[in-house]
Amino acid sequence: MSSTRVRIVFAGLMVFRPNKGTFELGVLRALNLRGGMPDHVLQINIFPDSSSGEKPSAISPASLESYVKAGDVAWSIEVRNLPGSPNLHTNTGIPSDRHQAAQPNQNDFGWMINLESGEFHAKTLTRSSGVLKPVISLDHGVLETVCKTEIIDVQKGGKPFRDDFGFITGAAALTIDTTGNEQVTLKTQGQADLFNLKPGVSYDIALLNTPLSAVGLPTGGHFGLYYDLLFPSVPSSERFAIKSHHPIKLPSDGCLSKFRPEMVDPNPFKCGGIVVNETGGPLQ
To answer: What strands lie across the sheet with 22-28, from one edge to the other?
Structure first.
């Protein structure tokens, strides 16, 4: 039997939180914004292995939005036909050198920015409620970084804080081995299965919360939306921003060099995810 797997790639405005050996993923609601900032839209695109003969498909953003508007916001990625209990593997440790993209730990989840870590605020931040919808539970597979952005600079309160900070996660992924006929599904509270995947076929699935088009995106990035929408109590003098470093330094595993544009956000540098600590309580 040939090996198969389902890899779900996450990119865009999302918040990850460890939760007693599992993870929560909250999708940041970033719609009807001021200043010409484009809407960030939840999207799911499904790409079967080319050898399967199955065509790519998508779940329409309007369909996904209908669940959220109906209050169906507690979702989960579930694996059926598991021979044992669910088990999530990940390494959240911050890399010792963010400038060395190609190293034994190049796929660690710790490349993603943790705003509550010692690299940034070094404390639990007060979150607004009701702005992370849906919240998706992840409890099985390997959660890791699958591609990185260019080197970034970090500012604090609009002033230089740490130039040449290093590489950060551009997109993460949950990879689930399905060689044993396991079936992966995305469930909503209403018990609807949003994935309809065939056993014995490998899939790449893009779960994005990004603008629908890269055309006309304002400069400066979208990182500030985490503060505007999720952490509004953080004063402007304490807010961090990420900027492109000059000269531009690209990693060996850059997102657009590894994935087709439909698999990652239009510009992963603008819309990367973040991590918060378990101590802050469940995402909501």
So the answer is: 183-187, 74-80, 132-138, 22-28, 14-19, 274-275
